[in-house]
Amino acid sequence: MALTYKNAGAAIGTSYATVYTCPASTAAVVTLAQVANVDGTNSATVEAQWLDDSNADAAIRISPVGLTVSAQTAINLLDNGPVNLEAGDQFQAKASASGDIEITLAIIEIT
């Protein structure tokens, strides 16, 4: 069993977009999902979910709907623990305003 440490990141738009997809023949542990509000003035909301590839891409929320991130602050969406992903599962996020929220994931891939 090999462990590979990776990062994934993106600026989040107003529609759910995939930040990370777990590769074939791999399991992954998302240990950190930090969102930063890079807007200098305005708060923005963020939502995150993962899609379960083995269950017809059922969406499972990671954060509450409309979680507010104040201007120039960052929060970890995974304060209560990591998210385990199987091959084909996706981690997605969206925000209330394009360009205001950036997300960084810390991932351990297991092959």
Description:
This protein has 111 residues and is mostly beta strands. The chain has no helices and ten strands. The protein has strands at residues 3-12, 17-21, 27-37, 44-52, 58-61, 67-69, 74-76, 83-85, 90-95, 101-110. The strands form two sheets. Strands 1, 3, 7, 8 and 10 form a five-stranded antiparallel β-sheet that branches. Strands 2, 4, 5, 6 and 9 form a five-stranded antiparallel β-sheet that branches. Strand 4 and strand 5 (58-61) form a beta hairpin. The protein is globular, with a radius of gyration of 14 Å. The N and C termini lie close together (6 Å). The mean pLDDT is 96.
Topology of this structure?
Blueprint: E1 3-12, E2 17-21, E3 27-37, E4 44-52, E5 58-61, E6 67-69, E7 74-76, E8 83-85, E9 90-95, E10 101-110
Antiparallel strand pairs: 1-10, 2-9, 3-7, 3-8, 3-10, 4-5, 4-6, 4-9
Which key terms come to mind for this protein?
about 110 residues, mainly beta, 5-stranded antiparallel β-sheet, 10 strands, about 0% helix, globular
Task: Return the average pLDDT rounded to an integer.
Answer: 96
Please tell me what the overall shape is: globular
Helix content: under 10%
For the record, give the distance between the C-alpha atoms at the N and C termini, rounded to a whole number. 6 Å
Q: Strand percentage, roughly?
A: over 45%
Structural class: mainly beta
Strand count, sense and barrel status of the largest sheet are: 5 strands, antiparallel
Low-confidence stretches: none
Counting DSSP E segments of at least 2 residues, the number of strands comes to 10
From the alpha-carbon coordinates, what is the Rg to the nearest angstrom?
14 Å
What is the succession of H and E elements? EEEEEEEEEE
Number of distinct helices? 0
